[in-house]
Amino acid sequence: MKFNDLARKAAKGSAPLSYGGSVNPEDMIRFSLAYGAEGADEIERLCKQHGWHEDGLLENGKRVAPLARWAAACIAYGRGGIASLQRLLTNRTLATFAIAVLTEVRTEPCVAVLLDYCLSTTPLSDEPGDPFWQALSALNSLTSFDDGLVITHEQREKLRDLVIETFAGANTPFQQTLCLCALRGAPIEGALEWAQAQTVVDAGAMRAKTAAIKSLQRRLSGSFKPPSAEQKRQIRRQRALDV
């Protein structure tokens, strides 16, 4: 994305420009990653110029993207990096937006921040949109697939323990499924044995358990070799085609 593209998108569309024009959150995240502090200044300028909405719920009941909150997360990253996003996690209004940006930044320090967040907080809701569940979903996205991040031994231990503790209090099939999926990112002693010992009845959770066991067995085998950078790119391309 060229620097002027975001302003063009923000000024485009038949709806009121306070709705964001043709800007979407992914545009802002990519812009923030590409242009850093300069990009943050531009996002802030456009947000003020067009009056982007905070909560996305208008007085007439219509919902639009809460671009002002997306802007806050992108501005934080552009100016202060991962440390600024970590500070936003303490604000439940902005936490989900910070988590989304961390997922796209996609580096090992992002995993560290998300792990620490999950280990230091608890879900306030069983809804998937609760920041805790979104952070665990982000960890799953970042570490569970063959093209994912290679995390440290200590982080694998933390992720394994987080999954086990969270699963013990899981109230819904979604939560059980997410825990079992996220466990794939922790190929470490105790993870496979724990997964094999769990009893689940929901069909989705059963599939997640089977997938977790197969993934852990493969990753823990002496013959497993992580894919190369090129192989990871091919895996990502294929996944995009499968969506």
Salient structural properties:
243 residues; 2 domains; 0% strand; mainly alpha
Tell me what the structure shows.
This protein is mainly α. The protein has 2 domains: 1-53 and 63-102, no CATH class; 106-220. The protein has 11 helices and no strands. It is globular, with a radius of gyration of 20 Å. The relative contact order is 0.07.
Brief description of this entry?
By secondary structure, this protein is mainly alpha-helical. The protein has helices spanning 5-10, 25-50, 67-88, 92-105, 108-120, 131-143, 153-168, 173-182, 191-197, 203-220, 229-242.
User: How many β-strand runs?
Assistant: 0
Outline: globular
Number of domains: 2
Distance between the termini: 23 Å
Low-confidence stretches: none
The helix content, as a percent range, equals 55-70%
* Count of helix runs: 11
β-strand percent reads under 5%
For the biggest sheet, the summary is:
none
Query: Which value, in Å, is the CA radius of gyration?
Result: 20 Å
Structural class: mainly alpha
Mean pLDDT: 92
Multimeric organization: single chain
SSE order in H/E notation?
HHHHHHHHHHH
Write the layout of secondary structure elements.
Elements lengths: L4 H6 L14 H26 L16 H22 L3 H14 L2 H13 L10 H13 L9 H16 L4 H10 L8 H7 L5 H18 L8 H14 L1
